[in-house]
Amino acid sequence: MANVAVYNIEGKEVGTMELNDAVFGVEVNEHLVHMAVVNQLANKRQGTQKAKTRSEVSGGGRKPWRQKGTGHARQGSTRSPQWTGGGVVFAPTPRDYSFKMNKKEKRAALKSALTAKVEENKFIVIDEIALSEIKTKSIANMLKGLDVSKALVVLEDGNVNAEISARNIADVKTAKTNTINVFDVLKYNTVVATKAAVQAIEEVYA
Question: How far apart are CA 179 and CA 112, in angstroms?
Fold first, then answer.
């Protein structure tokens, strides 16, 4: 089992924590990680793009000039794709980009992403983030003390003060243990998680 240092909110080391290998020490499956990211981005797409083909553009029923003898190329309609205002060749139509991943694949992908962060020493555990009031400066100072920028802060359920305090910091995103996902883990340089959040993740995914 991997051991990681545990820090307090001032950025000082206060102990160590043993991570469960079933979650934070699996074999990294790059294919599943890639698939999970593509799945998440695809499921976000609206797919509402639309352009008209030549059959949908109005007008153009009359042949613009006779077939021969004008010196122009032959034309059958002013709504052909080569005309200004004509239809679009192979025009995009509304479609659903989403696709399904199996639950086991999603879980394996998340475990792989978390393991990769631990192996890169970019997974930091905080003993607790207990704020008596909503104060952005408290979270900003914590991250400064940890020498962290562009971070995903994973909080246990119910820690509303910390969640709102981090909301206004650039390049920082908060996530609860049930909303953590592969895309965010990879997008942010460092994952900062509370001890309670790590234990909750281990309970769900171990």
Answer: 16
